[in-house]
């Protein structure tokens, strides 16, 4: 997969968040979008995910050399972000069955295997609303990491995770990064340390914001 950003800019009301952002993301590489709080990392991820529209410039996607229409790009990606909600009324088992209707799992792993890999075996029949915040974060990450998609977008991936959860995240992102584009929005080194490519969103702030 290839994603091309060409002179991309985003403005909310009269405030430009970033401008003139030209960059290419390629399968097989992992990218960190870096910057302080409020610098525009999540905004850029929502643009790449197609959840938000640019104010100027272009964003294009292609898979195996064929262009993908922007409105179809959601089929190729999995995303976790603090603002995304799980369906709290489902049990864990029901949540996986529901999710797999839209995003089949990588390597044909079974739902039971994914539950085991997430370390949530004891919670398989528990309602998601009764999960702790760390368990919910593992579930969100597990669904994204193990979805069979060429684009993996992770915004603040270790939110609510303890040190054991952070080690779990590092192990499983490493197992699932090959042959994909992985993009992490973060300012915490343990979330993005493995990323060989770094994009500093502040480099694209209008001069008055620097
Ligand atoms: N829907 C919106 N309407 C107006 N302003 C917005 C909107 N969403 C974000 N912003 C503004 O855009 C800027 C960038 O926000 P964004 O959430 O992308 O930053 P971030 O780098 O991800 O921050 P953090 O590290 O705190 O999560 C902030 O000034 C924010 O107030």
Automatic annotation (TrEMBL):
Q: Does the keyword Protease apply?
A: no
Domain (ABC transporter): residue spans on this chain: 3-209
Q: Does the keyword Transmembrane apply?
A: no
Ordered alphabetically, the record's keywords are: ATP-binding, Nucleotide-binding, Transport
Record-level Gene Ontology MF annotations: ATP binding; ATP hydrolysis activity
Q: Where are the transmembrane segments?
A: none
Give the InterPro entries listed for this entry.
Answer: AAA+_ATPase, ABC_transporter-like_ATP-bd, ABC_transporter-like_CS, ABC_Transporter_VariousFunc, P-loop_NTPase
Give coiled-coil spans as residue ranges: none
Q: What is this protein called?
A: ABC transporter ATP-binding protein
């Amino acid at each position: 997969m290839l994603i091309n950003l060409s002179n991309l800019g985003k403005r909310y009301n009269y405030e430009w968040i970033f401008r003139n952002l030209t960059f290419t993301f390629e399968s097989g590489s992992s990218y960190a979008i870096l910057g302080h709080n409020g610098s525009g990392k999540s905004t850029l991820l929502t643009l790449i995910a197609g959840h938000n529209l640019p104010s100027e410039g272009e964003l294009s996607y292609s898979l195996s050399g064929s262009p993908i229409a922007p409105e179809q790009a959601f089929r190729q990606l999995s995303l976790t972000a603090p603002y995304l909600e799980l369906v709290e009324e489902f049990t864990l088992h029901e949540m996986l069955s529901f999710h797999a209707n839209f995003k089949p799992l990588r390597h044909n792993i079974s739902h039971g295997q994914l539950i085991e890999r997430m370390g949530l075996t004891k919670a398989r029949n528990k309602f998601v609303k009764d999960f702790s915040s760390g368990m919910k974060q593992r579930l969100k990450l597990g669904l994204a990491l193990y979805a069979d998609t060429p684009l993996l977008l992770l915004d603040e991936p270790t939110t609510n995770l303890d040190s054991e959860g952070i080690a779990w995240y590092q192990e499983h992102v490493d197992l699932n990064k090959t042959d994909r584009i992985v993009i992490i929005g973060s300012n915490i080194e343990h979330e993005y340390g493995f990323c060989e490519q770094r994009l500093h969103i502040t480099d694209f702030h209008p001069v008055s914001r620097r």
